[in-house]
Design goal:
The longest helix has 18 residues. The protein is mainly beta.
Length: 237
């Protein structure tokens, strides 16, 4: 009887987790993280120097930050209909710390042959989506801790309803919400991106199949890729 009660409780907890819009840190943190707004992936305020698993959370400005698009999207050719995993990582090379910020924004656009642009997804941000719950949380933009204990901004891009062509993915730093759901004021200490990962523009893991660009101040980075016809490329369903 106790066993049945235990498993029922586990099942109930699992349902709560699935229905919640907040990012659940299923994997333990193995790195230090700078949190300029004083929040982490669970949406709960943190204090400077707080221990989290094997990492430390610092509430301070994120200086000299590097942006890095994942190799999986830079070095692979995708076809329309694929499920494309889009990952971006922010780190401080000088300290080895990662950066979690509510100011991270993301958008996907279709670049039409007539020169027009159509928004496919977004613009969404970590700050706007962190506390999203219910069905809307399925398309929320989130950050997570991967199986290696590192922090990344991840999005599962399902292209099954899209046609072949050029698409631009943009990641940038912008405003944060003025307050959290409990009414606590949110103040950003700032994120200063100063460089991009060399592997995003210089072939180090094969042929680069996506075009990565940066704004003059590096606060915006865009990645343009070509989705091939459905019978070509990686991830054909």
């Amino acid at each position: 009887m106790k066993g049945k009660t235990f498993f029922a409780a586990v099942a109930a907890l699992a349902m709560v987790t699935l229905c919640s819009g907040q990012a659940m840190a299923a994997n333990p943190l193995e790195v230090n993280v700078v949190c300029p707004e004083g929040y982490f992936v669970d949406g709960v305020p943190v204090v400077d120097g707080e221990l989290r698993d094997d990492g430390i959370l610092f509430v301070e400005k994120a200086n000299d930050v590097m942006i890095d698009w994942s190799d999986d999207i830079v070095y692979h050719q995708w076809s329309a209909g694929s499920k494309v995993r889009v990952e971006v990582i922010l780190t401080q090379p000088s300290t080895g710390a990662y950066v979690y910020t509510l100011s991270a924004h993301f958008m996907i656009e279709k670049m039409n042959t007539d020169g027009s642009v159509a928004i496919i997804y977004g613009p969404n941000s970590i700050g706007d989506d962190l506390w999203t719950e219910g069905p809307e949380s399925r398309d929320a933009y989130k950050a997570e801790i991967n199986s290696e204990g590192r922090l990344l901004y991840g999005f599962n891009w399902d292209t099954k309803l899209l046609t072949a062509g050029s698409y631009r993915l943009s990641f940038w730093i912008d405003d944060v919400p003025s307050a959290d759901p409990d009414g606590n004021d949110i103040t950003s200490l700032g994120v200063d991106i100063t460089t991009g990962a060399s592997g995003d523009t210089i072939p180090v893991s094969g042929e680069i199949l996506a075009d990565v660009e940066y704004s003059d101040d590096f606060q915006l980075s865009s990645l343009t890729l070509e989705l091939l016809q459905r019978d070509h490329g990686r991830g054909v369903n």
